[in-house]
Amino acid sequence: MSLLLQQVVLDGRQVDILIVDGLIKKIAPELNDVVADQVLAGAGKAVVPGLYNGHSHAAMTLFRGYGDDMELMEWLTTKIWPLEEKLTEELVYHGARLACLEMIKSGTVFFNDMYWHFAATARAVEEMGIRAALSGVIIDLNDPVRLKEQIAVNRERFQISAGFSSRLKFVLGPHAIYTVSKAGLEWVRDFAAENDLLIHTHLSETEQEVKDCLNNHGLRPVEYLAELGLLSDKLVAAHAVWLDGKEMKLLEKHQVKVINNPVSNMKLAVGKTFSYRHFVEHGVSVGLGTDGCGSNNNLDMFETMKFSALLQKFAISDPTVQTADEVWRMATADGAGIFGLNGGVIAEGRDADLLLIDCDRPEMAPGHNLISDLVYSASGAVVDTTIVAGKVLMQGRKVEGEAEIIAAARAAARQLMQ
Amino acid sequence: MSLLLQQVVLDGRQVDILIVDGLIKKIAPELNDVVADQVLAGAGKAVVPGLYNGHSHAAMTLFRGYGDDMELMEWLTTKIWPLEEKLTEELVYHGARLACLEMIKSGTVFFNDMYWHFAATARAVEEMGIRAALSGVIIDLNDPVRLKEQIAVNRERFQISAGFSSRLKFVLGPHAIYTVSKAGLEWVRDFAAENDLLIHTHLSETEQEVKDCLNNHGLRPVEYLAELGLLSDKLVAAHAVWLDGKEMKLLEKHQVKVINNPVSNMKLAVGKTFSYRHFVEHGVSVGLGTDGCGSNNNLDMFETMKFSALLQKFAISDPTVQTADEVWRMATADGAGIFGLNGGVIAEGRDADLLLIDCDRPEMAPGHNLISDLVYSASGAVVDTTIVAGKVLMQGRKVEGEAEIIAAARAAARQLMQ
After folding, report:
1. CATH 1.10.10.10 is the classification of domain B2-49+347-402
2. Contact with chain B for residue A261, Cβ under 8 A
């Protein structure tokens, strides 16, 4: 399968790009002699890498706008948890399809997800053509019976994942140190090591988590994970805002990957800003995530990039921190790298996970600096074409079947509310 | 001139809306017998008030993306001021047209502007059909000759403004207390009172401004304006972030209007959060603005609403502050009220400044709560139709002449850079 992009603008110069079997095969000023299965006329649109969403709960699209402006625990106990108990695989499927649609339409080519009814999200991802790292939610609440179930379920998921397309990656998803037992975390550690799996968890999102960990274990969260041997370059930790200097050094030493979720952190008022500059100084890989629609309320990585850079500047009263180029790299090359992916950069041999940007829009004019315009002025609506693994998932802002996907998600949400 | 909106959804129920001579004449479940000059099929789209942008420098669209991530003074002296010296009326006209286009496309029906070459912005607003309160930039730098010029220019502008359409409002724009002399501010005070004009100024944006005011006048900025008799319900103060309790009480006492610009405050790292809750507790009218494209970098009030609500929550670690409904009201009814406008609310007799929202988009689904979706999930791209003073300025996201406007702004920016 081959795709030829004609007359796209890469770093300011017009090129043609040939894609074969999901990879960028050739980039040249003109590829007139090439015969391709599909030809797409770029018409001067800018080509950039797609965006990598490092932390999400895709099917929570079903809860978008259902309970905002509330205290975290009140929101969870009165709004989210009662609904999550009613979730079925079918409902999650429809929520995850809506999430994939929203991400494709806003230029995201990959997301790292943790949610209930794992198989439903996997089905949505397979069908929609996007990439994902998928985990279920491992929670045992210190109950050995529940842990045994979780181990069985995750062993089964791992086996099933062998049948996934290469766009899907199975990941272990221990929810957090306060919802998974020591034995549970140790099993995750060992199973991940045996099978070369990434581990995706929430870490140090709130002050309460730190206090509880100190009370229960006499250690701060990162120290606790260090003691259990969970820290490694296979660990992807979402949030990591409530850290001290010693914890930062541990994350550095073990090359743990961290994902910042600025919109969610602000909406839930977690009370502390992600220490971006410290992470960079310590050489820790930092990616960017939207978190779920319950606490964001969208999946638009363009918006998340702007929130990230502006929150950093505001928090430390320094307008020079986290430049447009830096946050763009977090959402592209660095995001891809964290998940061991070959995309995030446009070069021969790389994954063909690309966007064509419509620059003929007022918010993209006059166009002094494309990356600045993408980070500070654009929303996901500037994306004209989304290509994942060499397949055109959106063209002219149209995604196949989108009206039906939206209608089905609406019906699923209505059913949940009944 | 009459316009009939058929089958639009207002607060959850389907209605027809008849607009005559720029005002909402009738709202009813069906208006089948009405004959109108123009009929617009709403097809189930949601109708909401348009958005009111309380503080902007429209033509700074020409500088979008030209210098980000810099210290304020370095940015002004090396990037902005040198370019502003080269501005001509023609260049400002093209920048202001681009701004009007961007605002119309993102659902803004009115903006309160302060910028050089006032007549150029007025011409753009007249042509584009949007509403605006327009001021030049009064700066005298304590130079009596310059003040005399400014007085003459502003008297002339005021006379010319008698010929403006009713969509334009002439406003006096003393830049700030540190760029306008005492005599200048006193002239502004008297001329505004004589002619019933609003005054638009920057106030207490940075700590430096407060320090300098204390050094030069022995007073904090609001106290200084109080002493000069500038505080009144005709004063619209942009920013107002660096205030103490005594200044807050003065603003309350004199019913001064304040405009919060959260995106600009974050990008420029002004170091303090707008005290929204205190303003509300003191009964001060609060509106919302984008500021200019130099420090934002777009004019999308949807994005600004989300930044506003989330920054408030994060800054005081309280997710319940500034709800979606509150920030929506700031951008609509309260914004209109600050400028003495009759819009911001959809009711018979009100200005027909309306938006039709396309809810058939993933970020608007499943649709539990329209206002939450508009504030926390949408970008300006959800606006399908923009109506100002009963005239359809955008329909199906198309604005007449937009390609030419963008091309002309690009050419203007290129000319500036030469």
Report:
1. no
2. no
